[in-house]
Specification:
Blueprint: H1 5-105, H2 109-127, E1 131-136, H3 141-159, E2 164-167, E3 180-184, E4 191-195, H4 196-216
Parallel strand pairs: 1-2
Antiparallel strand pairs: 1-3, 3-4
């Protein structure tokens, strides 16, 4: 039975409606899928950026913490250096006071003569040469002449050897030196300086560890004791 034009138009409209419905559903499905994929990708990108931001601030926090540690370490080291400097300055003040008091030794002539005799005898024993040259301050020249025989006598008692000592009257020890003597071989290549300052410095260097401990207490970081 042939369809009328009206029936054909109805079927065409029905097919168009069906196609439209299918197309609309497909569009909605595609849009929904696109929206889902967009949200997933957006979430992934947001999370990725969040992780990057967290990592960035973690690095910054570590850098700040490291900078603080370095700053604290530098400040601690600077404080320690200041303390050490203050301690050394204090000890040096004591050394300067001791040097000032050395000048009182030379004012007691009898005491100073005994010291000169002993200092010269020590030099003679250290050099242990048959001929030596002796230097002193010009102000001490007469005292040295008086005490030199006693120094030589002590040397002979200790070594059993003779020694000829020439007093150098051309090159005196500088006047600013507190006192003492200096002996050398005739050519000046071997020399022993036994001035009061030199002896004080030697004693000071030996006493510094004990002096530090007396003034400032034991050093907890010191593992060995001389």
């Amino acid at each position: 039975m042939a369809l009328s034009d009206q029936d054909v138009q109805k079927q065409i409209k029905h097919m168009i409606a069906f196609i439209d419905q299918e197309a609309s559903e497909k569009v909605e499905e595609i849009e929904a899928k696109a929206e889902e994929e967009f949200n997933i990708e957006k979430g992934r990108l947001v999370q990725q950026q969040r992780v990057k931001i967290m990592e960035y601030y973690e690095r910054k926090e570590k850098q700040v913490e490291l900078a603080k540690k370095i700053q604290n370490s530098n400040m601690l080291n600077a404080s320690r250096l200041k303390v050490l400097k203050a301690r050394e300055d204090h000890i040096n003040v004591l050394l300067d006071l001791a040097k000032e008091r050395l000048s009182t030794v030379t004012k007691d002539e009898n005491r100073y003569k005994a010291i000169l005799e002993g200092l010269a005898a020590q030099c003679l024993c250290q050099l242990n040469e048959p001929k030596l040259k002796l230097r002193c301050r010009k102000a001490d020249e007469q005292l040295v002449k008086e005490t030199l025989p006693g120094s030589i006598s002590k040397f002979k008692k200790l070594t059993g050897r003779d020694v000829a000592v020439q007093l150098d009257t051309e090159n005196y020890i500088p006047a600013e030196i507190v006192g003492g003597v200096e002996l050398s071989t005739p050519n000046g290549k071997i020399k022993v300086i036994n001035t009061l300052e030199k002896r004080l410095q030697s004693i000071y260097e030996q006493m510094v560890p004990a002096l530090r401990e007396t003034l400032f207490g034991k050093n907890p970081n010191r593992r060995f004791v001389d």
